[in-house]
Design a protein that fits this description.
alpha+beta, Hypothetical protein af1432, Beta Polymerase, domain 2, 27 helices
């Protein structure tokens, strides 16, 4: 497609289109892609042009067509999003960025990755549905040229992905023509021999029945002319993939299928649709069970039409679709057709209905994330036929076929499903797992408390119900674990004649890495921690050896190995070292040996004098306590200081000094010096204090 042909195509349905912007995008794309080639040997830019052409055939807005021309520039050329925004504006840049991100996600059919790709595709489409339309057009042209790829396994992988994800997406937003073409192109690479056989049989069948088809066409036109009704009558033949699926589902031979050929009748108004139906059924016998009215009750993707099958001329079964011209356009082009009507008053409800399913799936994603299970649930949402049921107040609820009354409850509201104790279907008491039929009126009886759902998980059909039940079961399991954990802790503490008050239990939060009683109870309830472990953490001094004397108060030598006996030694000023801390000695002329923590910034001054460094270590079995310093920021509340001092005391620490460093209306800053045995002792105290909600922060100061 050449530049002027694309512009002519757009202006044919949108005369006021920005031609200069289209020309600019065309020239920019040509320049950026340069001499890049596709697998076919064609210039690479031929692909964006064809994608733009597909969207122009769908009569989409100028912005979308411009984005199609530019959609591969970010991934395959030196262009950036900033370049696109500078040259074409924020809206175009946003669409190009969205399509680029989706393109980068393609090409991996590993289950979990496929689910993640699909999740992001849906989320992107929900933010701006045009991204999905561009991506579908991009995939359609790639499938049209897939035969140029020599690697058969790659062709099959891409075709399976198309059949699994893109074709059903196209169908779900009502783009029937694109859906059928994607299916047929995929079918030709996945099962080429079967497709060839079906295609040849269809040709033979068409030749055999050509006279009959012509006769039926003539009879229909005459019938409507006699009734002064202006109709467009057209015959149609099903696609090979559609025929193959019917053969698989119905377990029939090709000769047994009655609806390979069908007729479509298009009129101007809805009332004429029902007039045509009356004329057909008045003239020929209708086949029971083969009538569907999707005009009064449209499909979830906005599809509208009347379907009926009659015994026509020469006793031939004839499948007929009846719809207005606008409905036909919506059917063929789906969501894309809304751009033609978007300035008209009747767009609102149809448009919202057509994208409502995306929002349902996004809701599942936000709750559960992307998993293989999610992919299976969304496949159910995409493929199954639908039924329509009603609440007692007459609200219509669309569900997949074989959905249960519990699916209905969850479709109305998640809480209604979680509390659904029983149901009434058409006034009769029924089980929650009962499968619903078209037109059923369903009344949900709600319990005051959540009901048991474990046995019903396998009976529901919708992704929303499945994910809600799984979530409810997990929440119930967590609740039970908390109750068990609380009981275990109470029993252990009672055996020691202690009460597990909140203030006491909070001391274990830090060591156990939890931040609430609920999480502590769950940890014990699921077996990740024992009640005895919790008790030992909040009352650790029961197992710790008590040391009476403090090193500072005693006139003794420093209990460190590696010092020279002929040199005096001392700890560096303003340091608070305890046994177990990593230390190093520095020989300072005329001052002897100074002991530093290895993390001290002052050691930088001695880097160029390695001969001054002495390797030191603490002696074992030290019988004295040392002073450790911590800096605490705590909330200014009544009783806070008592919580800190009692925790330190219960951990066997003795506070030797407490300094109020800073204070404002909300927080205290405290410096606390504590007599401890070693660095493990002070670490346990810090860990316990960290779990107290009244503390904003706590850290040890070594120097």
């Amino acid at each position: 497609m050449r530049q002027y042909e694309l512009i002519d195509s757009v202006t044919s349905y949108k005369p006021d289109a920005d031609q200069k912007l289209l020309e600019k995008a065309y020239i920019y794309g040509t320049k950026m892609h340069g001499r890049q080639l596709r697998a076919s040997g064609d210039p690479y830019f031929s692909h964006p042009i064809e994608v733009a052409g597909i969207l122009a055939e769908l009569k989409l807005d100028t912005t979308t067509v411009v984005c199609a021309l530019l959609h591969d520039t970010i991934e395959d050329t030196s262009a950036t999003i900033k370049d696109i925004e500078k040259n074409f504006g924020k809206e175009v840049a946003k669409l190009v960025d969205g399509v680029t991100k989706l393109t980068l996600l393609e090409g991996n059919l590993e289950s979990s990755k496929q689910a993640e790709n699909f999740r992001k595709l849906l989320l992107a489409s929900a933010s701006d549905i045009r991204i999905l339309l561009i991506k579908l057009a991009d995939r359609l042209h790639n499938m049209r040229t897939l035969h140029y790829i020599k690697d058969q396994s790659k062709r099959k992988r891409i075709s399976l992905e198309t059949l699994d994800i893109y074709a059903p997406l196209a169908g779900r937003i009502g783009m029937q023509e694109i859906k059928e073409e994607l299916e047929d192109l995929s079918f030709s690479h996945i099962e080429p021999k079967i497709r060839d056989i079906i295609t040849e049989r269809l040709k033979v069948s068409k030749r055999k029945k050509s006279k009959t088809v012509v006769l039926i066409d003539k009879e229909l036109n005459k019938l409507f002319k006699d009734n002064n009704l202006n109709c467009e009558v057209s015959g149609r033949v099903k696609k090979p993939y559609s025929v193959w699926k019917k053969l698989e589902i119905q377990q029939k031979s090709l000769d047994q299928l009655s609806d390979i050929f069908g007729f479509r009748i298009c009129v101007e108004t809805v009332s004429q649709c029902y007039q045509v139906l009356g004329i057909l059924h008045g003239k020929w016998q209708a086949i029971p069970g083969r009538f569907k009215d999707y005009i009064s009750t449209p499909k979830k993707n906005g599809y509208q039409s009347i379907h009926t099958t009659i015994i026509g001329p020469k006793n031939q079964r004839v499948e007929v679709q009846i719809r207005t011209l606008k409905m036909n356009e919506m059917c063929e082009r789906g969501l894309a057709a809304h751009w033609v009507y978007k300035d008209q008053d009747d767009i609102g409800n149809d448009y919202l209905a057509s994208i409502e399913w995306i929002n349902d799936l996004v809701d599942i994603l936000n709750r559960d994330g992307a998993t293989e299970e999610f992919l299976e649930n969304t496949k159910l949402e995409l493929f199954l036929d639908q039924i329509y049921c009603f609440t007692p107040k007459g609200t219509l609820v669309a569900l997949p076929r074989d959905a249960t009354a519990l699916d209905f409850a969850y479709a109305v509201h998640t809480d209604l499903g979680n509390f659904c104790s029983s149901v009434k279907i058409n006034g009769a008491d029924k089980r929650r797992r009962t499968k619903l039929q078209n037109g059923d009126e369903v009344e949900v009886v709600k319990s005051k408390t959540p009901v048991a759902l474990e046995s019903l998980q396998e009976f529901v059909k919708t992704g929303k119900a499945k994910s809600a039940i799984i979530r409810s079961i997990k929440e119930k399991q967590t609740h039970n674990q908390r109750l068990i954990g609380k009981a275990i802790i109470k029993s252990v503490f009672s055996s020691h004649r202690k009460k597990p008050t909140r203030d006491i239990l909070e001391r274990s939060f830090g060591p156990l890495k939890v931040n609430s009683l609920a999480k502590l109870y769950k940890l014990v309830g699921d077996g990740s921690a024992s009640g005895s472990k919790v008790y030992d953490l909040v009352f650790p001094n029961n197992n710790r050896k008590k040391r009476i004397k403090n090193y500072i108060d005693e006139n003794i030598s420093i209990p460190i190995m590696g010092l020279y006996s002929d040199m005096p030694a001392k700890f560096a000023d303003n340091t608070f070292l305890v046994p177990g801390d990593k230390i190093v000695g520095i020989i300072i002329p005329d001052n002897g040996i100074t002991i530093f923590p290895v993390s001290s910034d002052e050691l930088l001054a001695y880097e160029k004098s390695p001969e001054s460094w002495i390797k030191l270590d603490w002696k074992k079995n030290i019988e004295f306590t040392f002073v450790a310093r911590i800096i605490v920021t705590l909330i200014n509340e009544v009783g806070v200081l008592n919580s800190i001092t009692s925790t330190i005391a219960d951990y066997g620490g003795n506070i030797s000094n407490l300094i109020l460093n800073e204070k404002d209306s909300d927080f205290y800053n405290l410096i606390i010096d504590i007599n401890v045995n070693d660095n493990k002792h002070i670490s346990d105290i810090v860990d316990s204090l960290e779990g107290l909600p009244v503390l904003e922060s706590v850290k040890r100061f070594i120097g």
